[in-house]
Amino acid sequence: MSAGELQGDPWPQRIACLCTEAVEVLYALGEADRIAGISGFTVRPPEARREKPKISGFSSGKLERILAVEPDLVLAFSDLQADMCRDLVRAGVEVHVFNQRSIAGILRMIVTTGALVGRAAEAQALVADLSRGLEAARLRGEARIARHGRRLRVYFEEWDEPLISGIRWVSELITLAGGEDVFADFATRHSAKERRIEDPMTVVARAPDIIIGSWCGKKFQPDHLRARPGWAAVPAVANDRLHEIKSALILAPGIAALTDGLAALEACLDGRAPAQCSEAVAEAD
Known about the structure:
Residues 14-273 form the Fe/B12 periplasmic-binding domain. Helix content is 44%, strand content 15%. The chain is α/β, with parallel strands linked by helices.
């Protein structure tokens, strides 16, 4: 028997993906067959929900359900999954936890995922393609600024009770598209709790031209926003520049945010209704 036959395929054969962006990247790299299970919050690509068993929620899951698919690698995201990952490590499973919160971090996540499954060259090519798309969007953003004579001011609302402003990669995409995130000073804060807006009148004072709601897991209700005391004076409310971007498009730090999510942001800045995707977010049992 040769050394190669003894070694076999050195890459993980059964990957449990506890985050939707890892699933999206593996499909894009042609490695869907390695996926043994997914989070119930996975929405992209849509065939993943049909083809793969749902083995966890986002921040919670039954250890035995994950172990039942016999993973030799688990891919997870952020401190919100720390407890699940701790238990998996104690059960003897190899775990890689990503924590990307910026455009650069998303691109690094793609490169790392490619390296983990023996698709480094394909991952680099994917990153190069995404980078070209980002550069094209930057140029469109410059043209948008020139048309308006300034950057349009954008308030991105990730949650409404309490108010939570946009995370870092969303803020960066707004800037790239030629807008100005009115809560850019909050965007680099690590947790959603740290991005809470304690006084809703702070939004009024920052006078956004456009408001984008992306309430994770529930439909944005512009009428509820219009009814907030004092908000009638906000330029975005007065001019009816209220938009929704489905959270599946932009609040998962993966390929979708850099493509469809960015396109949706550009549509909002141009006064068009953003194209949406179907969003299924029922947590796994």
